[in-house]
Structure formats: structure tokens, C-alpha cells
Amino acid sequence: MKVDYTQIRYELHGRVAIVTLDRPERLNAWTPDMAREFRQAMEHANQDPQVRAIIVIGAGRGFCAGVDMGALEGMTETGKTGSTRFEPLDQDSRADFQHPMTWLPSVSKPVIAAVNGPAAGLGLALLLFCDLRFASRDAAFVTSFSRRGLIAEHGTNWMLTRLVGHSRAIDLMFSSRKVDAEEAYRIGLADRISDPDRLLEEAHAYATDLAENVSPRSLRIMKRQLWDALFVDLAASMEEADREMKLSLQSADFKEGVAHFLEKRPPRFAGS
Question: Transmembrane segments in this chain: where (predicted)?
Fold first, then answer.
């Protein structure tokens, strides 16, 4: 079904969906319309069997400058943030992943943030809950909240601590200082760094490798395992792994994984 988006772009390149935040004149500042369209696009990518990986990027020179300041001005009068709950896109996903931004781990396919420029406030929250972060050398990461009289919103304190460690998260939250791509990579906030003109190309090459050479079933289950591991102890993680391994050994993708290796040919994974 074709959707007429106004604040994002949705494109399919091979088996990779590219979702572009598309308000470049405002550094892709977040609005209620953008939030709705972004959710629709991710739902579409999640349901489309052609799509096996997703890239999120910003148009122009910014990734996402956070909530549009016009919206923030309105909130000073109402005191309302518009927070709501979302149905998880993977029905087996935890209830924790049913809030603004935290629903992203419930997408059953790999989600890569291609951070092409400044990411601040809610824009930072968005990329924190993606699975991987590829950063342009022009990228900049800013928490912003303390300099707006706000607090750590949308689970940023929880996720940032797990990526960079407790004291570094305190530093970034308290100071709201700008972190460049090199520092982001060094502290674990970014997973790859690319030259600006190669960011999307390299993110797409990585996503295409996943789409063409990796079992979609394995990715779906492992993604859930890895996000669930943030909540459970080793014993519970082992029990889940034992249960899922038995199911994997009965799957079509396991049979294909063995067959293509023995036959020395590219895989033809069906995702089942």
C-alpha cells in the first residue's frame, strides 16, 4: 500500500529499506507528524517480506535536531509531553519496548542508524534504540536535556548507560556537551565511522550483506535475545537459548545454512 509521506522518505534499495527523516531546513527536527509517519514506515518495513534490514538517516546536513522547538514551546504551557504506549512490532517483544523510541527494538529486523550530522535530544534517543550506529565524521551527539530545563527522556539514561558506561553517561547528561564522531566511536556510542560521502554507501553495504547472506530467522531471534539480555540473568538467558536452539535445528533456514556451505554456493534463506 502506497503512503504519501510529507516529513519522511521511504525507499527500497534491494532488500534494504531506507527511511529518511526529511525536514532538512529544520535539521529534521521531530514533530508529531514525523513521529506518525516514521512509525508507519517502520511498520511497513517490518511487515514487508522483501525487506531484511532497515537504515534510518537524516536529509541534508543533520540527523535529527530533537523535538521541534515550536512543539517544546507549546509544552511549556500544557505541561504535556504527548507520551503514549505503542504495540510492539514483534509480538514476542518485551512490554518494555512499547514506549516512544523504546519500541524500536520490537522491530524484528536489523535497524541501522546512519548518523549523518547533528543528533540531539530526541534525535539521540532515536539512534540509541537502533541496533547499530554508523556515524559520519560530520556527526555530533548531544543529550540537550539539561540545557532546556528537562530530564533524561524516552529511556536515554537507561540506554546511554549501557552503551558508554555509568560515569560517561553522567558526563554527557549533566553537561549536554557536544560529542564528535571520533569520541563517540571511542566511548562506544558509535560502531563505525565513515567519511561523509561514504556513510550511506557503507551502511547500505553492511545492511545488504545481512540481507543476502544471513538467515532472517537467525537475525530475528538473536535480536530479541540480545535486547532481552539487558533485563535477565545468565540462567534465564541460557534457558531461552536452549529452547531457541532446538527450534533452530528444526528450521528451514538451518537446513539451508548447512546446504549452501556444503554446496559452496550463495545462501537462499527463506526466513523460516
Answer: none
